[in-house]
Amino acid sequence: MKLSVGRFAHFGLSLIVFTLLALLGALPIAGQSAGFRAEPPAKPGELKIPVGTILPVRLNHALSSKNAQVGQDVTGRIMQDVPLPNHEEIHAGAKVAGKIVSVQRAGNGTDGKISFRFDTLEIHGRKIPIAVSLRALAGFMEVQSAQTPEFTPGFGTPYNWANTRQIGGDEVYGVGGPVTNEYSGEVGRGVYGGVLVHVRARPESKCRGPLDAEDRAQALWVFSSDACGVYGIEGVGIAHAGRTEPVGEITLVVGQRDLLVRGASGMLLRVIQ
């Protein structure tokens, strides 16, 4: 079939006009009804992070009471996408940053001690003020073990389907599968990069359950739903978690020797303000 030059030119002009109208918003685009405009996503600096939100963090460097200096930077990496209300989230790879507040070196019967605080969340160059407490701390070997399947997957079985055991004892039945506690009760599900579970209190500890009324699923990475305290770092204790005055200041201590928390150790931080 032949198309005349005039009709071809008219067709081309119509196409240009249609494209311009679409770009200017005069015409609806696919997936958007006429007269409706989707609101742009919130900028990282505008994120509202509710009190009680858990931030699963990997420490970027070691903390040593032998070498640390007051004012030294302390940084960590968010290891799993953290869901927030209103369909927002903190993406894995975001950075938490802060400073060392005080250092006590071991010697003459004194304990090794470090106090620090994380006060900033950095996302794509934007800085959001935060105040957090420490719920759980785990050595890098504990972190590695929690990411290693309990049994070698069979030939042809996707690695992500393999079962893993969280720090604290919860069992993860692969990505998309349930997460169960020590009583075989389901507490959440496995996702890429970690788990989404409902935080639980541990009765014999000072760690509490959910702090918001909705009890939303939280990103706990390699930790159990009731993980609390220190795992796999011999002798180290949490002398001050940061929930009370001085708010946000976290203190770690070890008896009569210098304190050392190696890089790549894992932390569960909880937003408190």
Q: Summed up, what is this model?
A:
The chain has helices spanning 5-24, 140-146; strands at 54-59, 63-64, 73-78, 82-84, 88-90, 95-104, 112-123, 126-129, 132-138, 163-165, 171-173, 178-180, 186-191, 194-197, 218-219, 229-231, 236-240, 250-254, 260-261, 266-271.
Question: Could you characterize the architecture of this molecule?
Answer:
It contains two helices and 20 strands. With 273 residues, it is mainly beta. It folds into two domains: 1-38; 50-271, no CATH class. The strands form four sheets. Strands 1, 3, 6, 7, 8, 9, 16, 17, 18 and 20 form a ten-stranded mixed beta sheet that branches. The chain has a six-stranded antiparallel beta sheet with strand order 10-11-12-13-14-15, with no helix packed on it. Strands 2-19 form a two-stranded antiparallel sheet. The longest helix has 20 residues, at 5-24.
List keywords for this structure.
mainly beta, globular, disordered N terminus, 10% helix, 273 residues, 2 domains, ten-stranded mixed β-sheet, 20 strands
Number of domains: 2
Unreliable spans: 1-42
Q: Approximately what portion of the residues adopt beta-strand conformation?
A: 25-35%
Global morphology: globular
Q: Kindly state the mean pLDDT as a whole number?
A: 84
The biggest beta sheet, please? 10 strands, mixed
